[in-house]
């Protein structure tokens, strides 16, 4: 669309940001700018900040004086986002919605049901992960619309602009669709999804200008190491040459790992809890939640102030006296280095892989955080998995098949800490040495707080022919389950075969048909469609049928629908399958009747009970 502005939005686990490119600006002045976001920083105080903390607070009747939460576009918000939400939530976590983005990707809960704040008392109003995500986006839309005076200039409203919204590269199709649903609920319709690691790389290209072509060369393999507030993502981008020009292609995406700043803040909170209890204080579950959020603030201050050696942490007590009941302690710099560097980024060999499963039979329902907190072990596993990839993908490998990057680009709030970036480089260099390669080159990351939003805006500009594009497509191989035509065996289901419907790297906006094959489609009664995916199997072509896949293929959430055909019930029709990767980054499977008279669309991400 030929909109006035191209807008990049980083919908982050911990912070969100918005950047814009004005297509009407003169060429010599045209640049990507970060948009300030007005938000409550204290009661009755609204300030502009370049980051919107991704926290929602659900105020009680007596939490704030009447009118203290007024925003430029709303006098009495029922919930509010931003800096004040984060600060007040650290004091009263039972009313704080946090990590909504992580919940958005968690298939074990109904992400459209009101479940957040998780574990909050019944009297607290709750929101779904989709609603919470929509609230952050709605805040960004309202602040934008207020600035451009959208009532008088509707063509400048955010909902009328081209919006590039980022998601983790490891988000499955259901999480992507729910992200789009949140955007629609927030009043944003012209939205395209973009993977965060790619956005970070686009920001680097934009900051380098034409000099980026001198920093990398043909054959280079770039690792994007993205450790944010809630997730860890790894991607690999190759540099090749076509018709004498350098080209970029994303060739590998890691698994979805719920491991990031949230885990690290909790580890610090546990450390301070232990310290307080040794001093005779009792810290209960809700106090631990408050300590968790306080540790986040103290950690960020220590990383932002390298000369500071400690930060005070104050926890509300359980007594009736507000001041007299407070408990005080401190977070020290040596705590960060010991807990974060050694605990989450340990020096490990390339064959030290993360623990895959927890050992406890019963687990409390909640976010499925990674069983192993060692980011470096997850990175070793990701690079080792590339030995199973297709040979023509130009991934530089060592003698053992281990993928060996030439450069690393860091992204995510966690990687703002120099000590953690240094540890990752140190560990990777030890692996490269073992494989016989030279040390790693580090690409200077521009402004980690806003890189993803800036890079998203750059991608939108590149789509209009004003920049470099990374070739990507589907971030994994997708399959649909096919029930085997075998005699029934008592007590055993028919074996499930995995039919490849979208090969790795299938380009956005393209379609493909399963060649020379028909399948039986159940219509007129409820049926379950099972979808699977793999980040490892890159050689499977569309139409490939896999019978034994072990751990290489993972099952996604099933789709239960009734496909209607008038006058036909409980029928199996012969159909052929067609697939499409949409421009917004989601996948569709079309079932086409033999005579072409009927078509049914299945999407990996929709759980509706009825599909026509």
Any key phrases for this structure?
single chain; 612 residues; alpha+beta; Nucleotidyltransferase, domain 5; Actin, Chain A, domain 4; 4 domains; six-stranded mixed beta sheet; 12 helices; 31 strands; 25% helix; disordered C terminus
Kindly name the structural category. alpha+beta
Gross geometry: globular
Our count of domains comes out at: 4
CATH topology of the largest domain: Nucleotidyltransferase, domain 5
CATH class of the largest domain: Alpha Beta
Nearest-integer average pLDDT: 87
Number of DSSP-assigned strands: 31
Helix content: 25-40%
Description:
It contains twelve helices and 31 strands. The chain is an alpha+beta fold. The two termini are 30 Å apart. Strand 29 (571-581) and strand 30 (587-593) form a beta hairpin. Helix 3 packs across helix 4 (173-185), helix 5 (196-208) packs across helix 12 (451-463) and helix 7 packs across helix 9.
């Amino acid at each position: 669309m030929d909109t006035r502005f191209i807008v990049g939005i980083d919908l982050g686990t911990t912070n969100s940001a918005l950047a814009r490119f004005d297509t009407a600006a003169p060429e010599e002045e045209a640049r990507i700018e970060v948009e300030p976001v007005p938000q409550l920083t204290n009661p009755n105080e609204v300030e502009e900040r370049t980051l919107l903390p991704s926290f929602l607070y659900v105020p009680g009747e007596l939490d704030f004086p009447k009118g203290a939460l007024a925003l430029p576009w709303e006098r009495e918000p029922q919930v509010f986002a931003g800096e004040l939400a984060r600060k007040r939530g650290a004091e009263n976590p039972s009313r704080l919605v946090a990590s909504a983005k992580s919940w958005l990707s968690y298939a074990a809960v109904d992400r459209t049901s009101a479940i957040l704040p998780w574990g909050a008392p019944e009297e607290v109003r709750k929101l779904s992960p989709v609603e919470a995500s929509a609230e952050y986006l709605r805040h960004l839309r309202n602040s934008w619309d207020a600035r451009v005076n959208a009532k008088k200039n509707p063509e400048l409203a955010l909902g009328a602009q081209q919006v590039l919204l980022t998601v983790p590269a490891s988000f499955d199709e259901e999480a992507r669709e729910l992200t789009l649903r949140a955007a629609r609920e927030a009043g944003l319709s012209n939205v395209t999804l973009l993977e965060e690691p790619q956005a970070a790389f686009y920001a680097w290209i934009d900051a380098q200008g034409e000099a980026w072509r001198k920093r990398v060369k043909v054959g280079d393999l770039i690792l994007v190491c993205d450790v944010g507030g809630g997730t860890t993502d790894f991607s690999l981008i190759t540099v090749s040459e076509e018709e004498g020009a350098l080209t970029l292609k994303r060739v590998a995406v890691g698994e979805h790992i719920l491991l990031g700043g949230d885990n690290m803040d909790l580890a610090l909170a546990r450390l301070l809890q232990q310290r307080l209890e040794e001093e005779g204080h009792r810290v209960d579950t809700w106090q631990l939640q408050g300590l968790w959020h306080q540790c986040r603030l103290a950690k960020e201050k220590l990383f932002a102030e390298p000369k500071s050696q400690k930060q005070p942490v104050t926890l509300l007590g359980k007594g009736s006296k507000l001041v007299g009941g407070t408990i005080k302690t401190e977070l020290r710099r040596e705590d960060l280095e010991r807990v974060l560097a050694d605990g989450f980024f340990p020096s490990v060999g390339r064959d030290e892989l993360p623990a895959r499963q927890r050992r406890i039979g019963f687990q409390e329902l909640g976010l499925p955080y990674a069983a192993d907190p060692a980011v470096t072990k997850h990175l070793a596993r990701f690079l080792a998995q590339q030995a199973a990839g297709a040979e023509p993908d130009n991934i530089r490998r060592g003698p053992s098949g281990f993928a060996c990057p030439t450069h690393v680009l860091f992204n995510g709030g966690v990687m703002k800490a120099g000590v953690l970036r240094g540890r990752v480089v140190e560990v990777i260099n030890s692996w490269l040495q073992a494989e016989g390669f030279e040390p790693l080159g580090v690409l200077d990351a521009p402004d980690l707080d806003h890189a993803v939003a800036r890079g998203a805006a750059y991608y939108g500009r590149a789509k209009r022919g004003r920049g470099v594009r990374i070739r990507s497509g589907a971030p994994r191989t997708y399959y649909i389950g096919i029930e085997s035509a075998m005699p029934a065996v008592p007590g055993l289901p028919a074996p499930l075969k995995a039919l490849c419907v979208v090969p790795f790297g299938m380009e956005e906006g393209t379609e493909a048909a399963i060649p020379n094959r028909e399948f039986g489609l159940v219509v007129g009664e409820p049926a379950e469609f099972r979808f699977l995916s793999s980040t490892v199997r890159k050689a499977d072509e569309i139409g490939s049928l896999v019978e034994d896949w072990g751990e290489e293929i993972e099952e996604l959430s099933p789709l239960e629908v009734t496909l209607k055909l008038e006058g036909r019930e409980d029928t199996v029709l012969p159909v052929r399958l067609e697939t499409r990767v949409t421009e917004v980054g989601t996948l569709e499977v079309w079932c086409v009747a033999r005579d072409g008279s009927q078509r049914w669309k299945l999407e990996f991400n929709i759980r509706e009970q009825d599909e026509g």
